[in-house]
Amino acid sequence: MQGNFGLRHVILTIALALVPAPAFAIDEALLPRNLSPWGMFLGADVIVKTVMVGLAVASLVTWTVWLAKSIELRRKSKLAVERTRALEGKMKLAEAAERTGDAHDAVAQLIQSCAKEAELSGGIVDDGLQERVALRLERVEAAMSRQIARGTGVLATIGATAPFVGLFGTVWGIMNSFIGISESHTTSLAVVAPGIAEALLATALGLVAAIPAVVIYNQLVRGIANYRALLGDASAQLMLLVSRQRDHREFRLSRAAE
C-alpha cells in the first residue's frame, strides 16, 4: 500500500509539472510597466505614433496662430480706431494724407487711395469722384480683410480633420490589439488593455487638437468681423469728408457768383 501511495504521489507531481502556467502569469509579462501617456506613446505602433506627433504639431500650430493673430488684431484695431477718430475733426483730405505719410496700415491705405483718386481727378470734386472713391475704398477694404484673415483657414482645417485623424489612429491601434490577441492565443484583458489604451490616446489627442482650434477660429472670426466694421467706419468717414469738401466748394462758387 505504501508503495502504491508513493507511486501515485510521483505521478501527481509529474502531472502538475506538465500543466501549463496560469494565463495571468503570461499577462503580467506582456503588460507594460508604464501606462502613463508618455509610456503609452513609446509603446504604440509606428502608425499610431505618427498620428500622435501630427496631432501634437497641429495643436502647436493652433496656439501659434491664436497668439500671432490676437496680437495683430489688437494692434491694427487700436490704430484703426485712432485714425478714424482723427478723421472726425475738421480735417481736409490732403491734410489727412499728409499725416499718414508712408504708413501701411489699413486706414492709412484707405486715406492714401482716396487722396490719390482726388489727385488724379485734377481737384474736381463731383459725383464722379465720389463714385470712384467709393470703388477704391471697397477694393482696399477687401484687400485688407483678406490680409487680416490670412492664416485662420488652417484652424478650420484642424478643427474639422483632427478628430478623424485621431479616430484613424484609434482604429489602427485596436486592430493591432486584436492581432495581438490572435498571436498570443489568449483573450485576457491584460493583454488587450495596453493596445486599446494607446489607441484611445490618439483619439484624445485628436480632440485636444480640434476643440481649441474650433473655439479659437470662432473667436478670430468675430475679431476680424469687428476689424472690418472699423474699416467700414473709416471708409464712411472718408466719403463724408469728400462730400463735405464738394459742398464747401459749391458753396464758395455760389458765393463768388453772387
Automatic annotation (TrEMBL):
Principal location class: membrane
InterPro entries recorded: ExbB/TolQ_transport, MotA_ExbB_proton_chnl, TonB_ExbB_1
The keyword ATP-binding is annotated on this UniProt entry: no
Compartments where located: Cell inner membrane; Membrane
Transmembrane segments: 41-68, 154-175, 195-218
Membrane topology: Multi-pass membrane protein
Domain MotA/TolQ/ExbB proton channel per the UniProt entry, residue ranges: 120-226
Pfam families xref list: MotA_ExbB
Keywords assigned: Cell inner membrane, Cell membrane, Membrane, Protein transport, Transmembrane, Transmembrane helix, Transport
Family designation: Belongs to the exbB/tolQ family.
Subunit structure: The accessory proteins ExbB and ExbD seem to form a complex with TonB.
UniProt function note: Involved in the TonB-dependent energy-dependent transport of various receptor-bound substrates. Protects ExbD from proteolytic degradation and functionally stabilizes TonB.
NCBIfam families: exbB
Protein name: Biopolymer transport protein ExbB
Species this protein is from: Bradyrhizobium japonicum
